[in-house]
Fold each of these.
Amino acid sequence: MQAEPEAMREIEARMVELLAERGVAKDGVISLDDVNALKTQMGDPKEFSENGETRESSDEATESPNDTRYKPSKRLMRDTQQGVLGGVCSGLAAYFGIDVVLVRLIAVGLLFVSFGTAVLVYIVLWLVVPEAKTAADKLQMRGEPVTLDSLKNFSMSEIAGRDIVSNGSEIARKCIGITTGVVALIMMAGFLIALVVGGWSGFSIIGLLDGFTAQPYALGMLISLIVGGIALVLLCGLFATMALTWRARRSVVLSMLAALIIGSFAISSTAIFGLQVSAELPRDVKRLTRVVKLDLPDMTGVKSIRMKDDAMHLSLQYKKSSEPTRAELHYMDLKGVEKPEVKFDRQGDVLYVNVSHKSNSRCVNGSAGAVFLLGSRTGMLCGSDFNWARVVFYGPVDIITGDTNQFELAE
């Protein structure tokens, strides 16, 4: 049998491996049983002709079905030669007979939905799954029989570097890559816009919390969110690059792994700072809230209480009482903001309420961040349970029966 030197080295390596499994050490004695075992598992050298092609044996069809050559078993191994990091994805692709880039795209996609669990699974597989070092390992990884013929052909194909891919498969690859890449780019653009808008609104809200014990924790939460957002944008961009080029470069994968780790730390720190904010903010609100009694006009005949259309900094509450109607102003004593001025305007049986602030710059109109942080339902930072200006009325029940009243009932 004549074969290329590389093929012969692979065949010899496989023979050494099989002999080692039978307990034959280096420089040990090989028995006839060992030789017969090698022939059974790898084939008889006489089956090869001088030109390297396998001869058809007349009794081939009558070989025992129990022969291990005809029942190859697959082994899950890491293909580090084709791998980017530890060869886990390329090993899985070889084991299941699918394209390695598709496996890598799936693996990267799992990073977004598994919240980092996929990284732990990858590391465990990297440590547990053995590496395919020889041609015999790579054949077993694909479920092919490890014989003299297969070793020779595999080695020659590796040397030649032939990679036959059908046109249909290539078109399918490009379609999947382009579609996935475009979706990832759209997601990246959306996250980038959200990052810019959210960061701008967030720093505006942090400025409004001057005097709050929760302010430094809120700043830490915002910075953590920004860092996590940057990591998410980078992940989408790198994933789009890998999908569009249909190549998983080592530098790209390492960058994605670094972004994922940074994002995981950012999520953890966001949760920690968020818990601190949720604990400190109610205490700050209670500490800074002031209550002032308001002078009401004559309430005789008043059937309805309404806010002025431009009273966007105001929330009304009504508490049932058998006493004559009275009102209180609840506001937060913040730095740089003077006490709100409440005005009443009676028109017939309707009492209109308005409020004005001397420093409206400390209110953020329509800020989604204000709604998230302070629970506003009026579109302003000063709304609902954490209002900067809230007028509470105490009075009989007949005033609150009108359909035009604009306040919350409070027990």
Amino acid sequence: MKTKSKSKKMVLALLLSLAVMTFATSCARISDEQKETANRMTENLFEGIIREDYAVFSKDFDAPVLDAMDETAFRDLTLSLREVLGPDYSIQWVSAQATKAQGKAIGVHHYKITSSLTEEPIEFTLFASEDGNQTYISGFSIESDE
């Protein structure tokens, strides 16, 4: 079990690092459209986890995240989340910030995940980047004190 946990932490750290490396220091407001897009992408990501469907899970990923989060890492993540959250959990949007890095708009969306199996909510952060008219998941992190 330590290997799975260590593997999961390494993958999540990698994804978070990819997103954080590109951030600039200026922040702005997130539009309602950007929030709706992030919510849709979050729903796709977790729907893929629930259905154990990598194609649904990864459909909004940008190329670096697709490379970092392969199907093996996806299976490990799915197993870990099932152990922590169980089958019944809810995801609620909390806040977001917008920034620009290398000419690209990046949204940092914060969510909380609650489950009857956890005492405290789990923090989920989605990093969304815009490339032209398309928005992609550039990274995500899942953090729990448990």
